[in-house]
Amino acid sequence: MFKYTPHSLQKIENILKESRYVIRYEKGSFKSGYCVLQDRRVIVVNKYFDLESRINSFLEMIPELDIDFSQLDEKETSFVLNLQQAKLAV
Q1: Which helix (H) or strand (E) holds 80?
Q2: What pLDDT score does 21 carry?
Q3: Under 8 Å CB-to-CB from 87, ≥6 apart: which residues?
């Protein structure tokens, strides 16, 4: 079971940063609460979201992102694969 903690959010953010994504928390009229600019590798998340909503936004987008597994260690790779599988199971 996945836990919604600040540490989990930080792990997700670090993995995305290691895959050369820039994460920005800003206000905006996002339909889903986030926006991914693929060409620039920028992720914009609604800054007014609480912890759980931020994590859920990342969980929604991770399967669609180009994660560079060569930059991740074994634990991080396992964490991302578990996130992707958990999202598929829902």
Answers
A1: helix 74-89
A2: 92
A3: 59, 60, 62, 63
Q: pTM value?
A: 0.84
State the Cα–Cα distance between residues 56 and 5, nearest whole angstrom.
12
Instruction: Specify the long-range contacts of residues 1-6, CB closer than 8 Å, at least 24 apart.
Output: 2/82, 2/83, 2/86, 4/51, 4/52, 4/55, 5/51, 6/51
Domains and CATH numbers, the chain: 6-89 (3.30.2010)
The model's pLDDT over 20-73, given as tens digits with 9 standing for 90+, comes to 999 999 887 766 677 777 688 889 998 989 999 999 999 888 888 888 889 899
